[in-house]
Design brief:
YjdF-like; globular; 8 helices
Length: 195
């Protein structure tokens, strides 16, 4: 995985994916200088997520979709899109849960916890079960984090039963779609495990 991370980008799409990681780092620095520590902290939470595709050797197109989604979710918090744009949180719960669940599955493949659905003799239907389960787990953890933030940090975080269940349901739908994609499309570079 270290060799994947240190490997120079190959082609325009991999350069774009690395530029998105650079934007993530610059976003934290910019928020620390020109905004609040809270905004910088929110953006900093996205940084580890932005590095995962590089470590596991995700295909450039998936890396870009994943990184854009993570950055949009983080910046949506900073510029308050969740409150100002109707259903923005549902759009982001769907898309974020989808890409995070797919990436989590790739991490599990990398550590040989689950089989690669693209490998000969593997059951291509495994992601149809595992990816939605990962998405539901991620949705539950996220909703717990929101509740902790509301209960112990600030009451400005919007937390209601209906919102929580709706967010998790939409996230689960995104994870089901991701499971179908993972079962049918190779999301890792073909040479990723050679590194």
């Amino acid at each position: 995985m270290k060799k994947n991370f240190l490997r120079p980008p190959s082609g325009a799409l991999e350069i774009i994916a690395d530029l998105l990681r650079t934007i993530g780092v610059l976003s934290v620095i910019g928020a620390a200088i020109w905004s609040t520590a809270t905004d910088a902290g929110i953006l900093a939470l996205a940084l580890p997520a932005l590095m995962v595709p590089r470590f596991i050797g995700a295909r450039a197109a998936f890396d870009i979709v994943y990184s854009v989604t993570v950055l949009v979710a983080a910046w949506s918090n900073v510029i308050d899109l969740y409150r100002t744009v109707d259903n923005w949180d549902l759009i982001l719960h769907f898309s974020c849960t989808a890409v995070l669940a797919a990436m989590a599955y790739l991490v599990l493949v990398r550590f040989a916890i689950v089989a690669d659905p693209q490998a000969p003799g593997s059951l291509a239907r495994t992601p149809l079960v595992v990816v939605p389960a990962l998405g539901l787990a991620a949705s539950a953890v996220w909703e717990m984090i929101e509740w902790v933030g509301y209960a112990f940090i600030t009451d400005e975080i919007f937390v209601t039963y209906q919102d929580t269940i709706g967010d998790m349901a939409v996230g689960a739908l995104g994870a089901v779609v991701a499971g179908i994609v993972v079962a049918r499309v190779r999301l890792e570079r073909p040479d990723a495990r050679a590194h």
